[in-house]
Give the backbone structure.
Amino acid sequence: MLEESAQVIEAADGGVWVETVRQSACSSCSARKGCGQKLLSDIGQGARFRVLARNPRQLVLSPGDPVVLGLAESSLLTASALVYLLPLVTMAVAAVVAQWSGAAEGLVALAGMVGLGLGLLGVRHWGPGRSQDCRYQPEVLRKAA
């Protein structure tokens, strides 16, 4: 289970609204001075995000309470695979089909772009952001001390 600290903003139907602060692990990495990832993480460092978290344990929470959120690793891996792989696979399949059909190079590239677009639409339709599946929604594990 992946865990993240958050603060309760308000109670809502189906859970609680919480606010998290984006943290970077770059300060503990030995390659921090020569890494481009550090530069990217500095851009979003300290950014606040509001999310609706499930409260399956029915904890009594009030605004301002610190909590620990959890998300199953399998949910993160499944969502990542869908979001990243589906568009790439549809792009490759469309380009290969166009190539095998004897299309010109420009049409193969166009078919790949169309495949990428269809993959992105598929992610939008089947992706975790639109799913009502609770596996993709963080849950409150416990109150933080």
Notes: The two ends are 19 Å apart (CA to CA). Residues 2-143 form one domain. The mean pLDDT is 83.
